[in-house]
Write a structure and sequence with these properties.
The protein contains seven helices and nine strands. By secondary structure, it is an alpha+beta fold. It folds into two domains: 13-42 and 49-84, Ubiquitin-like (UB roll) (Roll); 109-239, Alpha-Beta Plaits. The protein is globular and about 55 Å long. It starts with 11 loop residues before the first strand and ends with a helix.
């Protein structure tokens, strides 16, 4: 059936050499994902406002002086966008090496959370071996937090802030926050206390959005017999 010339036409842009339509207000990340493009990210959660923190989702836009974060850049008519180039691959590998070197990942039980394998999956996809960069590590686990619901294994934390933002934007609890700066940056509660003494309702949203397994559902791990070394240590401390 022929289109009605009186109907407004959807704007288009060029994505990896292909002309595609988009809806005004969509970001380049949304357009690309709808077209089946696998753009990496560690700070993105579709439930949250775009953040642009990890910079892994950068794409090349013709006319732009530098790659732009696709999760925050809005699509515009006649844009020419490239999501996979040698330069972008190099950029993403370097960023992943830096992330992996700051808090080296380790194998964690899948039941730690829905998103808990995101970092390890990306490291495998880009063939990253931690160790190229060396320096201080951030994060400090709270094995002394004896709450029965959430394991706080911050030795795996990469400061993506997804847990902080989902607690605020989705739940409105503001139970967890970011303290300090640089390598001293840590995810903590108000006054750096225990979760049971904070505004936390133990909804588990922070666990489900964490891309590294730094937060875990203790009950699920116990049920599945998946308590790993950190969880075992946490349980032992809680009993003493």
């Amino acid at each position: 059936m022929a289109s009605n010339p009186s109907e407004p036409q959807q704007p288009t842009l060029t994505l990896d050499g292909e002309r595609v339509t988009f809806t005004p207000g969509e970001t380049l990340y949304q357009v690309a994902r709808r077209q089946g493009k696998e753009i990496p990210t560690l700070c993105y959660d579709p439930r949250l406002q775009p953040f642009g923190g990890c910079r892994l989702c950068v794409v090349e836009v013709e006319g732009a002086r530098a790659p732009v974060a696709s999760c925050t850049a809005q699509a515009a008519p006649d844009m020419v966008v490239r999501t996979e180039t040698e330069t972008l691959a190099w950029y993403r590998r370097t960023l992943l090496e830096m992330v992996a070197s700051e808090n080296p990942p380790r194998e964690v039980h899948p039941l730690r959370g829905y998103a808990s394998q995101e970092l390890t999956t990306l490291l495998a996809r880009y063939g990253i071996q931690p160790g190229r960069f060396a320096g201080r590590h951030s994060g400090r686990s709270r094995l002394d937090d004896d709450n029965p619901f959430i394991l706080r294994d911050y030795d795996l934390c990469i400061s993506c802030y997804r847990c902080v933002r989902v607690c605020a934007e989705q739940e409105g609890d503001y139970a967890i926050s970011v303290i300090n700066r640089g390598f001293q940056t840590r995810i903590a509660t108000e006054f750096d206390g225990l979760l049971k003494d904070s505004a936390c309702t133990f909804c588990g949203q922070c666990v489900q959005t964490c891309p590294t397994g730094a937060l875990a559902d203790r009950k699920a791990l116990r049920f599945a017999g998946g308590l790993d070394g950190q969880a075992q240590a946490s349980r032992s401390i809680a009993r003493t």
